[in-house]
Design brief:
Number of domains: 3
CATH architecture of the largest domain: Alpha-Beta Barrel
Strand content: 5-15%
CATH topology of the largest domain: TIM Barrel
Helix content: 55-70%
Shape: elongated
Largest sheet: 8 strands, mixed, barrel
Number of helices: 30
Mean pLDDT: 81
Radius of gyration: 46 Å
CATH superfamily of the largest domain: EAL domain
Structural class: alpha/beta
Length: 784
Amino acid sequence: MARIGGGSRFPGGATARRRISGPAAAGLGLYASCVVWVLIGLGHVWAHPAIGWLPMPVMAGLAAYACRRVTRRRDLAAPIRRFWRQISLVVVLLGLGELSNMADALGGPQPSQYLSPRTLTLYVGVLLLVLWALLRLPTWQRSRRDWTQFGFDAGIVLITTGAVVWHFSLRNAALPVSETGSAPAVLGLVVVAAISAITFFKVAFAGAGQLDRRAMHILSTGAVVSSAIGAVTPLLAGHPYLSSSMVACTAASLGTQLAAERQLRAPATPTSVRPPARRFSVLPYLAAVVMGAMLIDVEAPVGGERLAIAICVVALTGLVVVRQIHALRDNARLLATVDANLRQLHTYQEQLAHQVSHDALTEIPNRSLFAERVTAQLESGEPCFVALLDLDDFKTINDRLGHGTGDALLKAVSKRLQEGLRSTDTVARLGGDEFTLLLPGRTVDEAGVLLCELVDAVQRPLLLDGRETVARISLGVTAGQLGDTPEELLRRADVAMYAAKSVGGGRWTWFDPIMDRLADADARLGGDLRHAIARDELFVLYQPIVELPHGRLAGVEALLRWRHPEQGLVSPAVFIPLAERNGTIAEIGWWVLEQVVRQAAAWESAYGSLGPEKVSVNISARQLGEPGFPARVAELLRRTGLDPYRLVAEVTETAVLGTGEALAAVRELHELGMRVALDDFGTGQSSLSLLVETPVKVLKVDKSFVDGVTASSPEAVIVDGLIGITDGLRIEAVAEGVETAEQASRLHAVGYRFAQGFHFARPMPPEDIELLLEPAAETTKLSS
């Protein structure tokens, strides 16, 4: 829904608030003319008294028109529009009463102030309709105690107003009822009008949602002015060509018109309902003062004992009132203390409720609140989308830059997500680096556009602790369907998210049912992988690492293979990430390490110095993070008798980024005498500082750079630059993925001494490696 505020939605905007509209100016002008007409008429007899009555129905029409304009504001709640619709009926009925009153006054041979039963009925109907409209407002849903208090207040107003009007106005008007017939009518109208005014004020000060409080103040002021002027009707008995209705009824019309104009310009934001005040009502005490003064006024001409008793009664009443007020003030202070404690308790409860339903770090909804909102959305039957996202390589950022920076990154991502969403959307943090989104009321195309914008916004560079950081995210999204649960929606979004990750991350993708079938197949394959060691389905091949240019065997790299009983050979690109996800990588990695160490020890025993100078084995980040891993490796080396220098631990950049447990483990392996190789250099978040922070002895340049070495390409420039860096740091550089003689020649020309790839040899079993070692061994024997 469009934002509403500041009056900008309506004609004139804020400027309209500072100037009077044309209809309002006309209403003010007409009312001023009525007042002037009556004031002049007190000392002058108008020759055409009908002129004084003409503005009255016109003003009622202006008021009705203003009220109808308010009812056309669709941004107002239905009860508020209904109230103004009823008030428009009130002023229409008032206009009819004014026409009837005019007919009563001018219908006889001479002007008079007579009120016919018809006119009286119309005016009483006006007041009753006003009360009915007020009592139907949402804030007038009162308890029995409130109704009892309102009844007392109405009784007090009725008795006091009736007595005052009778004593000061009607009693002193020596005018036969037969001439005007107005005394009883005026008394009744004034009393009912006073009760209506009290009701107006109660609503005005309590507030009624979108019903503008200032508009209610204007309405209540018009009612009070109208009833007060009506009370002086008998004082105009000597001026039959005048009527208090000329000023009283027009005051009510003008107040209604100005109140409607105010409501028309007011914003549609709900007015907060004021909490019930602890202050006592002054109405009973004010009534007691008025009646006491009237009692003394009545008894003063009599004098004597009756006056003395009246004075004593009034004095005692005053003392009782003062004593009660004093007690009420003490009670008010106590209640204020209780209220303060209750407010503090309420604040604590709100804070606790917020903590239960919101994430402590990012202050956005947590899993439980998100589930509640998704459930409510699904129950409403309206379409919605649920998206799940997490940060790619968040653990790497956490380990390298510290948990404080990681927390700052999560806050920044949360803020960017919130900035890109509507108020009806929900972003929640499930835990760790996982966020989820609820997107109701959008089409598929709109959701797609939004997700593209969110991915771009989140992945903009940001500055954290003086470092520029880029938060890459993977996001999966699914549409809510009939019968879904929050858990099912999150599951599907999670499947889609991992599909986005599997193709490189930094993107979003829709859930497709085929993903479930692939996930099931992945789960079955993962289950088979757990038993692959026990079923003897895993085996190790070795790819030679050669010395350029002649191709002498300089070492081997151990490569794991899996022969599935049904699917045959499964690609390492499939089962290695699967092992990472299902947690079997540590067990499999240790099995591979044992096989490689035993094989290297066997070669060392059989061929001595002629065996492979270095045997490389890949070690995962999960293995490096295991407690006691370096000690287990040391025990394995001791048990097999292998020279640690022959064993090369190949680790990836992401495994050693930072100063955490993984880096400490790498350093301990180096202290054992093993060499450390940094594998696939250049494919991750490469940093030359790694070559300084980690005890690297071998740098393996990734195949993606070697592929472009024979052309004038950026890859060739990088390959050329790396050899200079490794020579300067006394690090061996091994070019991976060499597939042509031209590549081998170019690499040797720029300074590379070691390489591996299909151009030299494919991965082979240990027996084939031994076939390469045998000629050298035979040559050594013959020469000796």
